[in-house]
Amino acid sequence: METSAGTFDPNQPGWQGLHLTPEAAAHIRDLAEQQSGFLGVRLGIKQTGCAGFGYVLETVTEPREDDLLFERDGARLWVPADAMPFIDGTEVDYVREGLNQIFKFNNPKAQHECGCGESFGV
């Protein structure tokens, strides 16, 4: 399993950043309206699952020094710089699947995913 996808320098050409869909931005804004002190969401990764990596979402009340900020329509998404080589170019969406509503990650760096969709590999 590969545990490194390179390094990230936002000043170098070729990096795409992350993209929030209008639905994801709306949901993040809704969360911010419901929670005092909520600034946005942090998207990170961790080693987990059968494919190698999983996405980790957490609320942000104070950004970290190494966080990169992506915004759309007032919604804020922070990403730790060390996660960017694994998720650069990812579209973050918020969708309804049956009775569930979830964030979906369309990651062009993911070469494979596990059968349940909970983890990915690069």
UniProtKB/TrEMBL annotation:
Residues 18-118 form the Core domain. Gene3D superfamilies: HesB-like domain (2.60.300.12). It holds the Pfam family Fe-S_biosyn. The keyword Iron applies. The keyword Aminoacyl-tRNA synthetase does not apply. Keywords: Iron. InterPro entries: ATAP (IPR016092), ATAP_core_dom (IPR000361), Fe-S_cluster_asmbl/transfer (IPR050322), FeS_cluster_insertion_CS (IPR017870), HesB-like_dom_sf (IPR035903), SufA_proteobacteria (IPR011298). Belongs to the HesB/IscA family. This is Fe-S cluster assembly scaffold SufA. The gene is sufA.
